[in-house]
Amino acid sequence: MESLSVTEPVLLILLSLADRPRHGYAILQDVQDMSDSRVVLSTGTLYGALRRLLDGAWIERVEEEDTPRGRQSYRLTARGRRNLQLEVSRLKHLTRVATLRVARKET
Amino acid sequence: MFTVYRFLLYLYPPAYRSEFGEEMLAVFCAAQTEAWKNDTLVRSRFCAREIKGLVVGALSEHVRTVAGFDRPPVFFSRRIAMRSEFRFPKVTVTLMTIILAGVVLAIEKATAIQASVPDSYQHVGPIQPARFTFLPTMLVIMGGACLAGAIGWAILFALHRSGLHRLAEFDPASHQGSGGRTHA
Description:
The complex is a heterodimer.
Chain A: H1 8-16, E1 22-23, H2 24-34, H3 43-55, E2 59-61, E3 73-76, H4 78-106
Antiparallel strand pairs in A: 1-3, 2-3
Chain B: H1 2-8, H2 14-35, H3 40-67, H4 91-116, H5 134-162, H6 172-175
């Protein structure tokens, strides 16, 4: 993992951009859907995270002509995708260990 | 709300505002249109969330500009957000309001009694209130109540985050024989 800490909102933003580029409002809605409305981002939080991800070259703007600023789309870079995969692997391992530990406690 | 939002955007550093300001306004407009289809509670939450997000975001950007990093590392230590199910009991707010109303009524009653007593005790002399002190007194009471509430909430929050409440669920018998070693 490279320099940028993946908090839960950041992870959800990365997951939102994993399948296709999205613009800001679409990311907000997708994060809310993915988390069953548990994580609802404000625009301030969203663009703070997007700025950090842009600075770290985890995401990039999709250059489109005649696109208004409000419809500016973002997509994962190769670096961002690689780091997302690492984070997902880490979470899988953690979930596996947690499942084993909880099962051990119950038996 | 749009005007307030646009005003609060000025809290951000100029470079950030010129890069993201217009985009944030457009996204906010779309989100506000969606939120405004719901009831007042949802709208209020939306407004509070947006204002908080802008203020915290602007502060983070200024810290980054000045200090060269995003936020103090302590804020990034929680990679997985453990959300507590503990909620500050809302009934406390009602209780505090009732107590506050009681204090106000008591003050009013005392003022009325004071005004109704004739100045017949010449050897003591009439009590002359220097000035009307109701508003400053209320401000002090409200400030004290808010401070006490904040301290109480902070103590409860710290205790809950420490996991102290789980001690009641701890069963020593089930942990016997499992050894006492822990690994970091």
